[in-house]
Specification:
By secondary structure, the chain is an alpha/beta fold. About 35% of the residues lie in helices and about 20% in strands.
């Protein structure tokens, strides 16, 4: 008998990537699961890549909120409401626990599951669920999402995260290229130009070409300035999410700021080095099947030497095909499966 499931997690890019292992878990443990997923239109490609996802229901909350009462916005919202009302689900699982996600959950028909008052980022959201689950807050996002799914469907969480993105990587030849993400959504995440240039020298000394990602004209200008005068270095044209994923799948490794695309690289099983400056990797460490390094901390950026050492470790691991994936966190940071993680889950810091 088919179990019809609606997942609510609309954004952002990195958060949707973190959700993918939970979809793999559900498909493995829930017989005949049919999973639909509500996602923001800009990121709807991400859930569509997972083979267990039956349908992606697109919303445009980011666009709608700018013109909430315009006729076109009202028509689109009404069409979404009618679409959801026509469906019957066995389980509706809100994996975002925000009031904006509850707005969607309340329009769908089925038993509504979500985080309890102490677990939700916006506790008021918990008042609208039929079944509430306790998931400790201070732990890596992937573990948190997998734990919530396991609680909702009554299975034990086990095994390493599987992002379900093998269609991008199976049979793909790796090229001698380092993909670089030097931009981020916030300026306080940017890394100094001098550090980038030292890292680029190091990568090119290893025989790797440089391909820099840029999503808009400001990012393109910054990236062009970083590689000015270098051979075997280019700024890629603006790409779709699928095209970026295809480039990542072919890269020898990736070095990037804490961004959704850097997390996508790790999810694709590519060696990935993440540079954290304005956020903490305890909450959102890079995780994947290959070597990952999550370097830095809020207010404490890594230096070029730390990043170059991680690059050497990533290349050494990649040379040995049987090398297991390694996750390198900052000193003292809890690993997702270690005793420190369980201790950190109880961290009461507000807004952490």
């Amino acid at each position: 008998m088919t179990t019809r499931i609606l997942i609510v997690r609309t954004s952002s890019l990195g958060d949707l990537v973190h959700m993918l292992p939970a979809m793999t878990d559900i498909a493995r443990h829930v017989p005949d699961a049919q999973i639909d997923w509500i996602a923001e239109e800009a990121f709807a490609e991400i859930p569509s890549w997972h083979p267990a996802v039956h349908e992606v229901i697109r919303v445009a909350h980011r666009r709608w909120r700018k013109h909430w009462w315009d006729a076109q916005t009202r028509r689109e919202r009404a069409a979404l409401r009618a679409d959801l009302a026509a469906r019957q689900y066995d389980v509706i699982l809100d994996m975002q626990a925000l009031l904006k996600s509850v707005w969607l959950v309340r329009q769908a028909r089925g038993v509504r599951h979500g985080l309890d008052w102490k677990s939700a980022r916006e506790p008021l959201a918990s008042l609208f669920y039929d079944v509430k689950h306790r998931v400790e807050f201070w732990q890596p996002a992937i573990v948190r999402q997998r734990t919530l799914a396991a609680a909702a469907f009554g299975y034990a969480l086990d095994g390493a995260p599987d992002f379900g993105l093998q269609a991008f990587t199976d049979g793909v030849a790796v090229q001698p290229v380092a993909l670089i993400m030097p931009s981020a959504s916030r300026d306080d995440k940017l890394w100094p130009t001098g550090h980038w240039r030292q890292v680029f020298d190091h990568l090119q000394a290893q025989g790797l070409g440089l391909q820099l990602l840029a999503g808009n004209e400001a990012e393109r200008a910054r990236a062009q300035a970083l590689i000015q005068g270098r051979d075997n270095a280019q700024v890629l044209p603006r790409l779709s999410l699928r095209q970026v994923a295809e480039h990542l799948a072919r890269a020898r490794l990736m070095v990037g700021l804490d961004s959704g695309l850097t997390h996508l690289s790790a999810g694709l099983g590519r060696p990935t080095i993440g540079i954290y400056k304005a956020s903490t990797p305890v909450r959102t460490p890079l995780q994947g099947a290959a070597y990952t390094a999550s370097l830095g901390e809020r207010g404490q950026e890594p230096d070029a030497g730390q990043v170059m050492a991680a690059i050497d470790s990533a290349l050494d691991a990649a040379r040995n095909e049987s090398a297991p994936g390694v996750s390198l966190l900052p000193p003292g940071a809890p690993h997702a499966d270690g005793p420190q993680a369980r201790q950190a889950c109880a961290d009461p810091r507000p807004g952490a």
